[in-house]
Every structure is written in structure tokens, then in C-alpha cells.
Amino acid sequence: MEKPQYIYDIDDRPPLGHAFLYALQWAIILFPALIIVATLAGKALDLDAAGEVRFFQMTLLTSGVFTLLQGFWGHRYPLLDGPAAALLLTFIVLAPFGIESIQGGTILGGLFLMGIVLTGQLSKLVALATPNVVGVILMLISFTLLPHLTRTMTGMDVHPDGQPLTFFLSMALVMLIAILSHWLKGFLKTIALLVGMVIGTLVFAFLTPPQWTHLLQARWLDTPSHWIAGTPHFYWPAVIALATSYVAVLVNSLGSINGIAVVTDTQRLSKGIERGVFLNGVGGVFCGIFGIVGLVTYSMSPGVVLANRVASRYTTAYCGLLFVVAAFVPKLAAVLSSVPSPVVGATLCVAMGAQVGAGLAVVASNKLTSRDYYVVGLPVVLGTLVGFLPESFLEAVSPGARLFLGNGLITGIALVLLLEHLFMPKRKMDDS
Prior knowledge:
The chain contains 21 helices and two strands. It is mainly α. It has one domain. It has a two-stranded antiparallel ribbon with strand order 1-2. The longest helix has 30 residues, at 16-45. The relative contact order is 0.21.
């Protein structure tokens, strides 16, 4: 795949004002995910109001700090770090055992990732990332978000059955943002997502006047009530469960870094993976101490980069700085959370559409054979299917199986690796 041309490349430093707007785009896209994680974890732990606020502040702080560290020293790609879905699932399952058990398991899970890097075992996994594997990862990132996009773009977050008007407006906003991204020139082209979010927010505000109570009541400055959640306890069932979950984090991070590398810079990939995974482990240790959900490198970035035509790693680093500030300025956090969820969903839909195209280009970079149709097609279909499994079905399976079946990206990555390297390895004389 030929590398796309960007207005700002991976090591370029955009003017500070421009960089702030790019960072704001990233923050608005990711912020709802951080809210959801903090809310679900808080309910699982049965936290009071003060405990929920403290949990959210620490989530913002760790996500921001490690996004900054990753951009400047870690993988050095335009990627965001935040709470891992696989770890959230295990966090909820282990909540009845107490936060101290979760702390111990999360700390050891983080040390497990650091150990893989320090012992040199990570390089063996990097060699498995063929064009088929990377292309499937890029497409699956988009397709596994479909259940989330369905809920947000139909308004199911507010109305359980959704609203047709909300969906039609979301679809129109998707088309508008895509058209703006294509036709706008220069700086305006790079903030097409942000322009679309502003227009969408105004339209939805006209239809449903926003409630400003949350924003008005939010404090200007606040610090966490306490930093350390408790004394970590190494309860072995929790340790085993979280160690298994950290395997999913490792696979997810490898997929995220490989996915962004193919559309930005593959030269730094080897060191980037080592440093990125190592910092995921360090983040796990700190999250364990703080008693929050451990971190992963998020995979949505290639689509946003392709839509913006801005690949600078400094933009995501500045987004991390925004999160750090928001952790201590609840008023800013309230502003970031005020964008309607259908608008966020529509914006993400545009980015994921571009990412599907990038995934197809990666797969097509090598001559395809009939074998590749299965190696690529089956993991994409089955990984997407997993995302639509009903919650009642997932609750009926064991926690270990749920870690696999509850995450379509992990399922798809496992399947493409098995087909590509074990069950259907490439032969020199494959038929066409």
C-alpha cells in the first residue's frame, strides 16, 4: 500500500492553535468511551457519588498521561491510550471480590506485559503481522464498532428503541462530513470532523434544547479525594483472570500499532511496538495502584488520520494534555461530554469508513489467491458477527470464553492468525 500524503506528517509540529483544534477533535471522539467505562465500573463496585467522580478523574488522568508518554517516547504514533474493554469486562466480573483483588491482578497483568518486552519475546509476535493480518485488523476495527455506532446514531442511548429522525440526521451528517473532508482545502480540510461536529451539535440542539444543569453545576477546579484505592491483594483467581485479559490487551495493542503504522510510518514499527506495549504494562501497574481499569492503545486512529489528513503524533499528545487538564477541571470535562452522542457516532462512522478503505488497500497490496479470500473474509465476517451476539448469550458462557466472544476484534485477530499461519499457510505455488 502506498503511503497517503498528509498535510502534517507524523513528526511535524502543527501551529499551536491548529494543534489544539486537532486535539479537541480527538478528545470529543474518545470522551464518551471514557465516561461509559467509568460509569460501568463504578456501578459494578457500587461506588457512591464521590467515588464515581474520583474514578472518572483517575481514568482521565491516566489516559491523558500515558497518551502523552506514548506520543513523545513510547510507540510515537498518533494513537490514544484509554481503558481496555477486555479489562473492563474482567473488572466487572471480579467486582464482588473487592477492589483490592482487582488491584493485585491488574498490577501483575501490567508486569506481565513489561516482562514480555524485557525478555525479548515480543519480536516473535511482530513477525506474524502479514498484509492479510494487518488488513483484517484495520477492517475489523471498523466493523466491530457497528453495534456501538448503531446505538449512538439511532439515539438508543436516550430512547431505548431509537428514533428514525435521529438516524436520518446522523446519516446526513455522515455524508456532510465526508463531503467536507473531500472538497475542503488547506487547514479547513484538516478540521472537517470538527466542523461537522459543530454543525451536528447545533442541529440537534435546535431539535432538542440541551440541558445545561450538568455544565453549570460542574466545578472549575477539583482534585481526586484520594489517589490509592486500597492495599492490593493478590487473590489468585483474580490474577489468572486478569492475566488472561492482558493477553487480549497485548493482541489489541499490536493490532492498533500495526494498523496506524501502515498508513503513517513502518520504519519505527519495531521499536514502537516494544515501547508501546511496555508503557501499556507500566500503565497497568499504575491503574492497579489507583484501582481503575487498565489501559490499552486504542485502534480507531487510522480512520481519523485518513479523514483529517493529519498524521502528527503531537496532536494526540496534546489530546492527552487536554485529558489531564479535564481531570482537574470538571467544567472542561462537562463541555467535552456535551456533544450529542449521535454526532459523535456519525463522526466516528466517517473515520471508520476511511479505515475500511485502507484495510482493503493493504490486503490488495499483494496478489490475492483463492486462499486469501478465506483468510481475510472469514475473520472479518465472524469477528463482526461476534459483536452482535446478545448479552443474554454472553452471560450464559464462562468468563474465560466471554473474554473471547465478547470482543469481535480479539476473535477476528485470533482467527486470521490461525488461518494465515497454521491452518492455511501460504504456499509458493498457490492457485489463483
